[in-house]
Structure formats: C-alpha cells, structure tokens
Amino acid sequence: AQSVTQLDSQVPVFEEAPVELRCNYSSSVSVYLFWYVQYPNQGLQLLLKYLSGSTLVKGINGFEAEFNKSQTSFHLRKPSVHISDTAEYFCAVSERGYSTLTFGKGTMLLVSP
Amino acid sequence: DTAVSQTPKYLVTQMGNDKSIKCEQNLGHDTMYWYKQDSKKFLKIMFSYNNKELIINETVPNRFSPKSPDKAHLNLHINSLELGDSAVYFCASSQKAVNYGYTFGSGTRLTVV
To answer: What is the 8-class DSSP label of residue B62?
Structure first.
C-alpha cells in the first residue's frame, strides 16, 4: 500500500521569500502524485499533478513541483510567496490503476509580512 | 455552478442522534468519495462509489452508511452519533481513473455535543 510523508507540519516564511514544502512517498508500484491546497474553511483545490513525462511540473498560482523517483520525493516550491498563499498544503499519491488518493498529514504554510 | 456541492455546511447535533450529509456533483464523474478530516487536518478515505456501486469501504463503524441513488449523488448517513464523529467531512468526485485528480466539495463541519 502507498503512503505519504510530509515532514514539516508548519513552515513559516516571510512574504516574497522562496519556499519548499517537502513530500516523500512510499509505494511498490508506479504512482501518480498530487499537491492540493486548502484555504481556511474551504475544500481542497488541485495545485498540480505528476502523471508521467517531465519530472518538473508547473501548477497554478506560481507553484511547481519536481518528481524524483530515486528519492521518492515530490517537493513543492514557489520562488516568491504572497500573504495569500497562507494555507494548508497536502501531498497525495495514487497507485496507477487505482482511483483512491492517499494524503499526507499536510503542511501549514504561514506567510507573514 | 458549484461542481461538487455538500449540504449542510455546518451541522451541530447531540450525541445519539442520526444525521445525513448530502453530496451532488454536476461534472459527469463516475466516482464519488467521502473523506473525513480530523482535528489535526488528517484526511482519511471512508467510502468510494463508482457508478452507484460501493468499491471502497475502509474501516469505518457501521453506524456510517453511504447511499448513492445515482452516479451524481452520494449521501452519508450517520446513526447514533458519538463525540468522536466530530470532524469535517468532504465529498469528492473523479473520473474513474485518478489522472485528473479529485474535485472536492467545500466540506461539512459536524460537531457532536
């Protein structure tokens, strides 16, 4: 069975600074990888996904993530964050051929002025 | 037009009561899900339906019963509510293959007192 580890429960950062949110996964088969964002009191919104092909994936709101198969990682990055990026970020994995997403425990990104 | 809509958004009820949460999607997706998000923001799948048929039933007390009258609707009925059922419940939908990711509803915050 697959699993996801988000090592940081909270990441504080100043506005306009770069940020990286870490995600590692475990699976015995090929996977699809996703990042979702949850703003306060809202549902989850898809930021980006990796299915195959280029390991660098670009998403919405200036975020990108890089799939590293050898390190089983899918870290999320943004070169310059805004106050409005303050939210909970979830990494998720699905084994190919299945439709169920397994989520990590989330990382709270706190952007301050 | 809301793609995945859940009602109610908030639900406060006493222990021992029975309550239902409704979910509807207008995306034409084949598969629908219920996830539970606990107080630590951890998301765990409860059920998955594909074209009205139950395909995933995780270790959930049998007080929880999903019902899918058609592929656009997936309701969650909870009997004999307990304090530990307090959480945010998210409905989601996807195409049968997970490639496109899930579309989430905005959640139902259930508080059992």
So the answer is: T
Of B4, B48, B101, the CB nearest to A100: B48
CA distances from B3 to A68, B12, B47, B60, B68 (A): 33, 25, 19, 27, 17
Candidates B33, B41, B50; nearest CB to A105: B41
Show Cβ contacts of residue B111 under 8 Å, excluding neighbours closer than 6 positions: B10, B11, B12, B13, B86
Strand spans (E) along chain A: 3-5, 10-14, 19-21, 24-26, 31-38, 44-50, 56-58, 64-68, 73-78, 87-95, 102-103, 107-112
Q: How far apart (Å, rounded) are the C-alpha atoms in residues B109 and B90?
A: 9
Which residues share a beta bridge with B31? B50, B94
Q: Could you give the 3-state DSSP secondary structure of residue A62? A: helix
pLDDT block averages, 10 residues each, chain A of length 113: 90 97 91 93 91 93 95 97 97 82 94 96
List the single range of A57-66, B12-21, B24-33, B90-99 with lowest mean pLDDT. Answer: B90-99
State the residue for tokens 């219920």: B34
Contact list in B for residue A94 (CB cut-off 8 A) is: 98
Q: Which residue of B has its CA nearest to A108?
A: B41
- Asked if B49 and B30 touch (Cβ cutoff 8 Å), the reply is no
The verdict on a CB contact (< 8 Å) between A106 and B41 is yes
